[in-house]
UniProtKB/TrEMBL annotation:
Pfam families the UniProt entry points to: PNP_UDP_1
Alphabetized SUPFAM superfamilies for the sequence: Purine and uridine phosphorylases
Source species taxonomy: Bacteria, Pseudomonadati, Bacteroidota, Flavobacteriia, Flavobacteriales
Protein name (Swiss-Prot/TrEMBL): Uridine phosphorylase
EC number: 2.4.2.3
Catalytic activity: uridine + phosphate = alpha-D-ribose 1-phosphate + uracil
Keyword Thylakoid: no
Length: 233
């Protein structure tokens, strides 16, 4: 039995969108899904299931950070049979050419999180996206004329870093942007042999200092959502 999700068996679709913010989950359900119903309110982590183009699809908040998304991903997979986990989140640009509101597909996720270091006894593990979901996201974006960027992202345990300039060592090696969940999601998906992809929208830039508002992050990243919704089997 799930500790953190109160849904009954069969109430969660095999494909689920995972924003960090539960209010963004509610906005996605109310804006894009037909006949959505709420399957979870435990800890305020709202989850909904509805239909998109005739296919059942769910959306649920995960909170912030690798530990939080790892808990929800584990329970969604092992207790509810979820097969496709698609993170839809905001991120901060590490590169001049990665602009505000650009869409980034996370091919792989570098990280300063210690969870995989513990899991693999100090060895490095490279969490990567599912190829089929990645390929379908690229095809969907082309069909919808939505520009994409793709590459390595950085999953950080810190939001307020002590050394603001520390991002430059990652940008030097081509890392596109920073967020807080992808490495955890990709690792849990790989462990359970299911599919995962992070589709990210650039909400701010560590290079230029530009940023979007909190309300923008909650309700206006439509291109990212439209790509993610098309990934349902």
């Amino acid at each position: 039995m799930s500790i953190h999700i109160e849904a009954k068996k069969g109430e969660i679709a095999e494909t689920i969108l995972l924003p960090g913010d539960p209010l963004r989950a509610q906005w996605i359900a109310e804006t894009f899904l037909d006949n959505p119903f709420c399957f979870n309110k435990v800890r305020g982590m709202l989850g909904f299931t509805g239909n998109y183009n005739g296919k059942p699809i769910s959306v649920m908040g995960t909170g912030m950070g690798v530990p939080s998304i790892s808990i929800y991903a584990h329970e969604l997979i092992t207790e509810y049979g979820v097969k496709n986990l698609i993170r839809v989140g905001s991120s901060g640009s590490y590169q001049k050419h990665v602009k505000i509101r650009d869409i980034v597909l996370a091919m792989a996720a570098s990280s300063n999180s210690g969870l995989n270091e513990q899991r693999f006894g100090g060895a490095d593990y490279a969490p990567t996206a599912d190829f089929e979901l990645f390929q379908k996201a690229v095809e969907t974006a082309k069909m919808k004329n939505i520009p994409l960027k793709a590459g390595n992202v950085f999953t950080s345990d810190e939001f307020y870093a002590d050394d603001f300039e520390s991002y430059k060592k990652w940008s030097k090696f081509g890392v596109l942007c920073v967020e807080m969940e992808t490495a955890g999601l990709y690792t849990i998906a790989a462990k359970h042999n299911v599919r995962a992809l992070s589709v990210l929208t650039i909400s701010d830039s560590l290079v230029t200092g530009e940023r979007t508002s909190a309300s923008d992050r909650e309700t206006t990243f439509k291109d990212m959502i439209e790509i993610a919704l098309e990934l349902a089997d």
